[in-house]
Design goal:
The chain is α+β, with helices and mostly antiparallel strands. Helix 1 packs across helix 3. The relative contact order is 0.16. InterPro entries: Acyl_CoA_acyltransferase, GNAT_dom, N-acetyltransferase. GO terms for molecular function: acyltransferase activity, transferring groups other than amino-acyl groups.
């Protein structure tokens, strides 16, 4: 029987930048993000700066990032951002931990944490249609495909 990994989500700190930079520089991780290419150092720094800004949660674009750990080891990043259609979630799993159920555990943790932080259950996620594994993680947790736009599928929590 497969057991869900025991993970913890905590707010992202500046000291987590190196871990995030490793993920953002890894073509396996960025394959389904943006233009599908590893991020340049300036893009990484701009995103980290925005993530640490702590804009008011009722402001469209406000984001909160979380470092995900298992046994105190970083295994991924969960991001959230207030959009017009709801709070968008995203997750990046370190390739060293793929195939272990980490993404599902991360989304489970995000559902509770992010809903509480933003005070809403209106959660959405955008997924590259070629990323079947991510779509499967979301649909197993109650997300439904709502639309496709700009070459991305929009899932909403039912």
């Amino acid at each position: 029987m497969l057991y869900a990994p025991s993970i913890d989500l905590r707010p992202f700190h500046v000291s987590d930048t190196a871990f995030f930079a490793r993920l953002a520089s890894d073509e396996r991780v960025t394959r389904f993000i943006g233009n599908g290419q590893p991020w340049e150092q300036q893009t990484i720094q701009d995103r980290v700066t925005a993530a640490l800004r702590q804009d008011p949660l009722d402001m469209v674009g406000a984001s909160r990032w979380y470092l995900v750990t298992e046994a105190n080891e970083p295994v991924g990043i969960v991001v959230s951002s207030l959009k017009d259609e709801g709070v968008e979630i995203g997750y990046w799993v370190s390739p060293d931990h793929w195939g272990r159920g980490i993404a599902g555990a991360m989304v489970d943790g995000a559902l509770a944490t992010i809903s509480e932080v933003y005070g809403t259950r209106q959660l959405v996620a955008r997924v590259d249609p070629a990323n079947a594994a991510s779509a499967k993680v979301l649909t197993r947790r109650g997300f439904q495909l709502r639309s496709s736009h700009d070459e991305l599928d929009l899932y909403t929590l039912a």
